[in-house]
Design goal:
- The chain is of the alpha/beta class.
- The chain has one domain: CofD-like domains (Rossmann fold, 3-Layer(aba) Sandwich), CATH 3.40.50.
- It is 37% helix and 19% strand.
- Strands 5-2-1-9-10-13-14 form a seven-stranded parallel sheet, sandwiched between helices. A three-stranded antiparallel sheet has the order 7-6-8.
- Strand 1, helix 1 and strand 2 form a beta-alpha-beta unit.
- Helix 1 packs parallel to helix 2, helix 1 packs across helix 12 and helix 4 crosses helix 5.
- It binds ligand FO1.
- Ligand FO1 binds next to helix 2 and helix 6.
Amino acid sequence: MIDSDKKVIALCGGVGGAKLALGLSRVLSPGQLTIVVNTGDDFDHFGLPICPDLDTVMYTLGGVSNKTQGWGREGESWHAFETLKELGAETWFQLGDKDLAVHLQRRALLDRGFSLSAATSSLCSHFGIAHTVIPMSDNRVSTIIETAEGDLPFQHYFVREQCRPTITGYRFDGIESAAPSPGFTRALEDKDLAAIIICPSNPFVSVSPVIELPGVRDSIRASGVPVIAVSPIVGGKAIKGPAAKMFAELNLPVSNQGVADFYGDLLHTLVVDQGDRDEPLNTGCQVHYCNTVMKTLDEKVALARECLHQSLLFTPGGSAKGNSH
Ligand code: FO1
């Protein structure tokens, strides 16, 4: 097992990322684990700051997430949303009453001068979350999906258009002038950092915004710690969301090979579902096969352990010891 004084950073997006973050939170103490969450999906709606991936991680670690839907809360009521409908308001983005309260309070905190990190910390404390959940940046970074029909803010593409338009490209507006959040920078520079886990989130729109932040790639390399990514593609399909469709439309192989090629030399190990063991895969990194489909809490914890074990196979210099094929 990983020493109790060793630290781990988990980079994650929405639903898939939140599952592994939950598994890691069951294995690592609050002082050991920093969960860095994508904020490229964020947008203002009805004047409220919506942070879907931060909220999905917060609801998941807080034990209140809607398990079937993946996002939003369990036991929601929709009185405000139904009334919005009666008022002829935009209702393509569903907002439950409890979820709305989170957006209202985040708005209030930000208006009082809280950074997004501080607002997130305050909200997470009220969900009884002891582990550190932080936004990748306190600056606005907006994922824009470029399509044949024009540019779409992420939620318009993902929810309003239900990922129908063909993607021709994507970009992260504001990323050039954004900085990693203070907690993210601190975690990357921590001398006890022992592993970076890239959760099975969409590599393009959930993981890239985090690693493309100015200085992050260099800090990851300079840390010399093992970077372990869990492939979000299983059997040529994404477990959830548009990742597979995006790979195909961006003319990348919809496979673990496509994921390995995308992450390139950033990775020390790619964790691939055991069902894909016979798939041809040529990577410059180690490949570890295990169950990566997380339906139960035990499976989330087991995958967390697998990833942490992979990180222990590496000497500080980053060279692999032993063959984990
Ligand atoms: N996803 C949907 O497909 N439809 C929705 O109406 C919707 C509402 C919503 C509200 C709050 C929230 O935090 C997430 C919500 N999501 C919805 C999911 C969200 O679009 C995705 O979870 C992320 O942006 C992608 O990971």
